[in-house]
Amino acid sequence: MPQREAGAEAFVPATGGLSAMESAVQACRGCGLHENATQAVFGQGAARARVLLVGEQPGASEDVEGHPFVGPAGRTLDRAFREAGLRRDDVYLTNVVKHFKFVPAERGKRRIHKKPSVGEVRACLPWFAAELRLVKPELVVCLGATAAKALFGESFRVTRNRGVLLDFPERFELGEHGPDYVLATVHPSSVLRATDREAAYLDFRNDLRTASDALR
Asked: Do 45 and 99 form a contact (C-beta atoms < 8 A)?
């Protein structure tokens, strides 16, 4: 039987705002991912952003640098921001899982991304819930299936619901201060893996344009 993750609840400070959260997350032992990661990577961006974008987990570059979306996927996201009428300084960027999960490559020092388990995602959700309560975005953009399923449940399919505004799910309890809408799209890393990379990029950019238009 898989080990049940303890969860992050006990490590999330009750006061202090985003800066307190960013410091406290380094001591989180809510699941086993902290054992191999370089550091936890908390969200960054505008403290009162109207749109919050959430991905799966930090990658190898983010794990080393300590900032979200600074690797190749981050550069793709920045390009899409510019063309969609968004600015990185005006949004809040985070991941549902705060530590990098990986397996070592058979040769060399490269670390290969490994998808977090449902239990690891669930264990880390108190950090994401705290970010939502503090930032108070109007719109959440889920970048990829892991982020979308964290909000809507395991039955959610990005392929069936991509690029449309959905009501923020009641199952993710935030009271009257929760976001109004959620938009699901692919993770920018999937654009880089696509056979037709430019077509995949244009679809991704258009999803972000839908998000941008919703804020006007």
From this structure: no
Tokens of 45: 């961006």
Q: CA distances (Å), 202 to each of 155, 206, 210, in order?
A: 27, 6, 12
**Sequence spans of domains, the chain:** 9-214
For 43, 54, 121, the CA distances from 150, given in Å and listed in that order, are 16, 10, 7
Give the integer Cα–Cα distance in Å for 205 and 80: 5
d(CA 47, CA 18): 8
DSSP for residue 135: H
Look at domain 9-214 and name its CATH class: alpha beta
What is the spatial distance between Cα 166 and Cα 162, in angstroms, rounded to a whole number?
10
The pTM is what?
Answer: 0.94
Quote the CA–CA distance of 54 and 86 in Å, as a whole number: 15
DSSP character at residue 162: B
pLDDT of the chain, 216 residues: tens digit per residue: 345 678 999 999 999 999 999 999 999 999 999 999 999 999 999 999 999 999 999 999 999 999 999 999 999 999 999 999 999 999 999 999 999 999 988 877 889 999 999 999 999 999 999 999 999 999 999 999 999 999 999 999 999 999 999 999 887 766 666 899 999 999 999 999 999 999 999 999 999 999 999 988
